[in-house]
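User: I'm putting together a teaching handout on how sequence relates to shape, and I'd like one worked example. Could you take Lysosomal Pro-X carboxypeptidase from Alosa alosa, show the sequence you're using, and then write out its predicted structure as tokens right after it?

Assistant: Happy to. First the sequence, then the structure tokens directly below it.
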Amino acid sequence: MKAEFKAIMPVLVAVALLLVLSCSHGFALKSHLFRRRVPAPSGVMINYKTYYIDQKIDHFGFLENGTFKQRYLVADLHWQTDGGPILFYTGNEGDITWFCNNTGFMWDVAEELGAMLVFAEHRYYGESMPFGAESYSDAKHLNYLSSEQALADFAVLIKYLKASWTGCQSSAVVAVGGSYGGMLAAWFRMKYPHVVAGALAASAPIWQFPDMVPCGVFYKIVSDDFAKSGVNCHANIRRSWKAIDKASSTDEGLLWLSREFSLCAPLKKGDGLKSWLQETWVNLAMVDYPYEANFLQPLPAWPIKVVCEHLRFSPEVPEQELLQGIAQAAKVYYNYTGDATCLNISQSATGNLGMMGWFYQACTEMVMPMCSDGVQDMFEPQKWDFQAFSDECYAMFGVRPRPDWAEVVYGGKDITSHSNIIFSNGGLDPWSGGGVTQNLSDSLVAVWIPDGAHHLDLRNNNEYDPSSVLAARRQEVALIKQWVKQWAVHTHG
């Protein structure tokens, strides 16, 4: 791997983590994801049917006339067939069955709303491949992978459902999504207000683009999470980088690090221990949930607090002892169950996700600058270098990113002309730095969840949920009901 690419890889990985919280280890578990009945985390049985619709490969041109089969899932157990609403999940960059099985909020409120649930798969992910096995073969085949094409797919699918499903012609459709899916939900309402009555955009960093928010905000929030979770915790992580450099400068030090971290293979110079740890701390910030969870890894409740118990050293602690604490902290993430015999830093901390599709999107329209300075955050200084980023994108895909395209297409921070969108964000979630956290109008509503990590509100109800997320869900349901009533008045005059 080129040195320049190593420098920007943390940015690509951090952006790819938009996918992780909902998709988890979905690709590794793909063979298990086609079950049609699975127990949800709350014990509620999820029951859906799988369908396919023929979609145009290119909605915006006329030379490519091919079609592909887009997968979507439907659950209508609680649907009131005389025009009950449709909660429409705008699929993220991953297998749609995993989002279906892990968006417990929709299942929890379906009966109260009398709603049909529809989960639409995003093109180029899961089974929805425009060119089959050739979809990722080159830039020509990847050319139709964009948020704009995906939103058009969703609009066509809803038009088809209303034309072919008896009883939903007048149904209000509410878009729901988390992370990148939340961005799509918000943009869906903005671009197709005649199709969707409103949108719940959870943890949606629609402003994490050039010149909209400071590039350092993401890593600062990660660091703040660690600072709040234990005495000297973030300060000791900041000190650890130089200690790792010093230890890894000799063969003896590399061997010692290999033993302390219980690595599967002996550590060599340039193996990326620091980038692996950086990704681990970021993951922990996003999954800092108030109860045991099993998204990226099996983790305890409030995992950062558990991690920080290993890092309560004073500033005078010897470097060797500091690194022993860092190793134990990393094992909270990778070996909480005690089942791992060794740790493999050659694998991403997010597992084998197959993130190349999202890398392509990050290299075209989803340009999300990130940087760190080692002062406002606990990471090593790393500038945002657009040119280096662009060069590596060209080397990978033969394409150059358009840094301002999201602002041109979706309005950037000038979105007050739109309506009926909930932007929910958690105070623990690093992506909240690129999210809408203040009301923009009476109907562009920001819901703030101080104790929430990445889209906690879209998870199932849990007995350990903080009161802030329970209040957020109540507010979200009340607004959805309001939109449904507005749609009925609009539809029936």
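A couple of points you could highlight for students: The longest helix spans residues 467-492. Residues 1-7, 19-40, 349-354 have pLDDT under 50 and may be disordered.
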